[in-house]
Amino acid sequence: MAVMAGIDIGTNTLRLLVARLDGPDKLIELDSDCCITRLGEGLHREGRLLPSAMARTVAVLKEFGEKLSRYELNDLVVVGTSAVREAKNRAEFLGLVKEQAGFAIEVISGMEEARRTFLGVLLGIGVTRSRMVVMDVGGGSTEFIIGEHGIPRQILTTDWGVVALTEKYLTTDPISTIDFDALKAAVEIRLKPVCESLMAEKPFSLIGTAGTITTLAAIDQRLERYAPNRINRYRLKKSSVAGMLEKFLSKNIKNRSLMPSLRKDRADIIVAGTAILMMTMDRLECNEILVSDYGLREGILLDRYLQQYETERESIKTLEEVVKNDAEKPSA
Question: In terms of domains, do 164 and 264 share one?
């Protein structure tokens, strides 16, 4: 038994999880928190993290630290993803966090982020009988992880996430047809080669994780409050996604923010995220996506647990190792 804490520092959102792990398949949540600080604000223009965005993020990390002081932890894992790894002033941010919040951040690659996300999704969804494609729509990037029998085999990662797409293309409020068409064209250019590769992997189960997709699952069920047990394993239909996208486009940000289950600080980026999902489902000819409430936050804890107690499990190897080993196996 181990009590562990994990913090996921994302481009849009900070997520905290304190949990007890009684084995590789049993994670019991003790505490959690989530706060949108928009760390990646303006990153696509400047290539740097803005002072205001860093200050917001450090302030929340200090609050997380106060919360963690209540627990006797066996381990703590803090990871930085897209915005942190891409920023020219990454070292400055890492120093600020260490000095003011006391956290040492592990900056992980897109491939490593995908592997740990896959671990978290497996914990929430379980191993499906068919091949899996896990779709992770993030603030700074979008990943697709292909897996079989619970083992990640390949990752297709992109440099487009909902924060940069929103800032670059959706500049009118309500969103104009010209702006939305420009967004769709940009997504289409990046989506086409990814989906062509994925179509070669059919049949597979499409699984979605992270804030955009879980929010859509909550809105589709008209939940007044976010309920993880109602989100996890929810089957979100493409027709529902299309209906929500149409509704979002008909409203300005203020009116979108009044919709049940849609946080005010997500009302601007939900359109870009929904468009990515809708266009992906169209191209992959998928009528539904299975939603996972678990993701990177759970995966970083499970990964640390497995490294400490079950070092021989193939699921904790890097994706580079898994792909390399598969390529070296003799053909039948």
Answer: yes
